[in-house]
Design brief:
Blueprint lengths: L13 E8 L6 H11 L3 E13 L2 E7 L2 H12 L4 E6 L5 H13 L5 E3 L14 H11 L5 E2 L3 H8 L6 H13 L5 E3 L9 E4 L4 E4 L12 H14 L4 H17 L44
Parallel strand pairs: 1-2, 1-4, 4-5, 5-6
Antiparallel strand pairs: 2-3, 7-8, 8-9
The structure holds pyridoxal-5'-phosphate.
């Protein structure tokens, strides 16, 4: 097939998410793609798992056959130049291995891994063999890994009670081979995240936000970091800006169903409606719909 695009529009960074699909679109690939778009990037997606879920929780999980996941990744990487990769829910060991091989075959500039293990409603999103593969193999293939406290406990075998415990776990995860780690403390008493890049520990302070607005926050945080790294930010800058973005998107979230409230990924686009009687004047005195189409 030829390239039929005659335009010379510049292409923004193309980011790849490898994650599960949440049909209510609060978490997983849908949250990732919205986050990429909100940061001016184009997102492509390979689906590791098709979940059955709504805002009230995950009912069942259907993992993508590994050969199918491999094929999805290959057609994308053979076609597009991927600036950065975000990894989320893996489902099982078979899919985790496919991703490990994919990362080895293509040296991506940035790989952000959110090691999702379980949904808040309790569903298993990664099997035991998959967790083992993350610990022994995938961890060291990421630029940064972003576990929450519960996931950091599983990765390290440690019990984490406070910020000091988060710091100890962050150091251990780097010892285990990660290049950098952010242990997310959003569920703790103080919503502090701990970033360790192998040299310095940085505490990212944050405001505690409403507990029922947290669906998709992990996916969104990792995706925002991916976009910001692709835009040339340092990891520390990316982490801080991503945290600010997630916090604001949580604050602006609105209910779409009977359960948890997703984030508003596009809060930056929402402006106050103009005062009564004031209308936007089209730029060339022309109704936007009457704009001649470019050829
Ligand atoms: N579904 C998918 C596809 C996910 O990737 C995730 C989390 O990353 C979840 C569900 C779980 O989200 P939550 O912990 O907010 O229920």
């Amino acid at each position: 097939m030829g390239n039929h695009n005659n335009h010379s529009n510049p292409t923004p960074p193309i980011l790849l998410t490898i994650a599960g699909f949440d049909p209510s679109c609060g978490a997983g690939t849908a949250a990732d793609l919205k986050t990429f778009a909100a940061h001016g990037c184009y997102g492509v997606a390979a689906i590791t798992s098709l979940t059955v879920q709504n805002t009230q929780g995950v009912e069942t999980v259907h993992n993508t056959p590994s050969a199918e996941l491999r094929a999805q990744l290959e057609v994308l990487v053979n076609d597009c130049e991927i600036a950065a990769v975000k990894i989320g829910m893996l489902g099982n060991r078979g899919n985790a291995v496919v991703i490990g091989e994919f990362l080895d075959a293509h040296k991506f500039a940035h790989v952000v891994h959110d090691p999702v293990m379980r949904s808040s409603s309790g569903a298993e999103l990664l099997d035991a063999g998959g967790i083992k593969y993350v610990v022994t193999e995938l961890l060291k293939r990421a630029s940064v890994i972003t576990p929450n406290v519960a996931e950091a406990e599983v990765l390290t075998g440690m019990t984490i009670k406070d910020v000091a415990g988060m710091e100890a776990a962050a150091r251990k995860i780097v010892e285990m081979g990660a290049r950098a780690v952010i242990v997310k403390g959003g569920h703790m008493e103080r919503a502090v995240d701990v970033l360790f890049d192998g040299e310095i520990i940085t505490q990212l302070g944050g405001d505690k936000v409403k507990a029922d607005n947290n669906h998709g926050t992990g996916c969104t945080f990792a995706s925002a970091i991916t976009a910001l790294l692709a835009a040339g930010r340092t990891l520390a800058e990316a982490a801080m800006l991503a945290k600010a973005y997630v916090t604001k998107a949580i604050e602006k979230g609105y209910a779409i169903g009977k359960g948890r409230i997703p984030l508003d990924h596009f809060y930056r686009l929402r402006t106050e409606p103009p005062a009564r009687g004031i209308h936007e004047v089209p730029q060339h005195g022309m109704h936007p719909a009457a704009e001649p189409t470019a050829h």
